[in-house]
């Protein structure tokens, strides 16, 4: 290590620039991994948060998160009557444009059928729903408690703020009562109603049905028995919580995961190329020194250790810089970035292995240096 440090001191600028380059590549991998894990966290937050063991959806679908699912409102009563079911709740989720302080943005509305006030929601401040005309929103919507939100012809008052309840796209979620949800879904602007009537359509809109029915199984009852009973119904399909999570991660986010893996792979290849060129150039520069060491009787292991020590210092410096850069720029991103211990170890291992692979060219060049070259 002492030889490596002394040699690095002779070309400190190149070493620092290379370490900085590896740090940038490392931070890029960390950020991409963090963005993916953040999207997975956002996409699965609602499934993990909802107090439900089973999701009953439209037959032939895997909704409501993977595809469109519509079931009748009476399905909640049917599911509640199944032996072993502790509670069944209507579940409806729709994307709507909301207006707050003159600013329009998209939010996902979650319907809560009182007296189910959504006690499982991750409430940050305020309270849950008690009556129509109220809304509980994610804090990212930017509306304080007591503020007004206009959506679908309804003016709702914010009574509570949630934390981390957002869609994979980053849009915030909001919870409203089932009565408000139906009115919002049925709303059409007066101009649209007049145009429809002029065209012979006298309807004024109709509220949408449910996306699914969620159910919790009584403690001590067999989940498999309840599943088998509901699966005999021809008009619905039933999924467990694990099924829903798998569909979201392996279905909805599958393409994104492949893109992240491809991007990380490209960064690894670039890192290997940078390290290869740097170590090879540093080896060529000290060709006379290596030949002199061999002439003095130094074993090949001494030369090998010199190159590996330099490679290790490059990798460690690059990893440290990468983590520092990631920690500095991550708060600037508008999306959630999750870098846990597993991701940090994975990226660090990739960088170390890539640097070791990159050192092969330097080791090969050093092995071909003859001791007689020191006399030339």
Automatic annotation (TrEMBL):
InterPro entries: ABC-4/HrtB_transporter, ABC3_permease_C, MacB_PCD. Residues 262-370 form the ABC3 transporter permease C-terminal domain. It is a multi-pass membrane protein. Residues 17-232 form the MacB-like periplasmic core domain. It is found in: Cell membrane. It holds the Pfam family MacB_PCD. One of its GO terms (cellular component) is plasma membrane. This is ABC transporter permease.
